[in-house]
Amino acid sequence: DHYFLIHPDHLPTGSLADLSAAVFSALLPYLPRTGREPLIMALLPEDQLVALAGGVGDPAKLMLLAGNSSRGSELADRLVDHEEVRVFQEDFDQRYREFSLLAADETFEAKLGQAGFDPLFVGPGYLLDILTSGALATAALVSALPSWEEGTELDFAIPKNHLSFLAGLVYASSLQVPVGSVYVGEGEPGTLTYLFRTGRLASPSKGRRRRDRDASFPVNLERLLFEVTGRNGSRTGDLSVQPAGSEDFQLTEEEIHLLNQSILVGSCDYKYCLRLIRTVYDQTDYLIGRDAADAIACWVKHSNKKTRSAICYVQERSPLLDADTCARALFGKGANRENPVGQLAEETGVPVWAGLEKALTGEPPQWSPLSGTIEESVLELLGLASDQ
Length: 388
Prior knowledge:
The protein is 44% helix and 15% strand. The protein has helices at residues 17-27, 46-52, 72-78, 92-103, 106-114, 127-144, 163-174, 191-198, 221-228, 233-240, 253-260, 270-284, 290-302, 323-331, 340-348, 354-361, 374-381; strands at residues 3-6, 37-43, 60-66, 83-88, 117-122, 153-159, 179-186, 263-267, 309-314, 368-369. The longest helix has 18 residues, at 127-144. The termini are far apart. Mean pLDDT is 85; it is low at 206-216.
């Protein structure tokens, strides 16, 4: 009978990443003083990069952006003089693993230190992002407590690509916050569903679309694996470097049990997703995007098994960032293919923030490519390439 929404419609970039970025910038002045110049290196999903950019008082930043990003114009509009962007065309997970290894490379850190720089690496699911998510979950619980009966728990429905929120729920639960079940929705293919059922990674199939081919292991799934392996960093690291389909990736029976203990995963096909977006809008006048629809579909599938719980749907980004799908769901053949964002905003009242409005009318930015290794690019940018 109760439901709560955590949504980003009124945030500067339409994403919950705005909150984490704001906390991040506020805490930077409190970092220990080393006498060296801070240098932030960030390899993040596009929402988080857009939110992180534009910090006038922040240290210098090198931000690494995936070439298939749809928010490059927004990022370009927010950049300030001491922020640089490099674009890579390789798979995100591949570059992120390179980034992780570089962050653990003491030789590279020493090289930057000798040149007067103090590096700070920021990747998906970084600790502040998780703590912010846990705080939001706790705030939702606190706001609901006065209307609850004793023993009621708050369930959460979250999209697959926002697993840092899931890690935040784990931390909130460890503080005795009454978190119930967590429903994780994914589209097609159902790679997480396969992992939760078998303890193995799904092999990329030949028929899978290019953008899905390497999507069987979301990099921020490491946070979840860290919990189910008993916070064993070595075990988590060994699992995280295995490619999809590897015979070396296999969770134990106990780890599979822990993974499935209070988390339910479900996939949702595109046509059902469209119907669900339309149904939710008709019943609540609230527009949801594809990711949120996937999560709600998972909850619908399993919710009849729970009797004493409320549900919090987490929509991590504005549905206007998924305008093509939402317009098709609401307007069918009458969707405006040239301006679905404007059509949706007029119909639903979802605000179009300034950055998105400029991105719709401006020219796509011309970024410098990340053609070699990340280390080479960093050293070249800092004028240290000859020291290699």
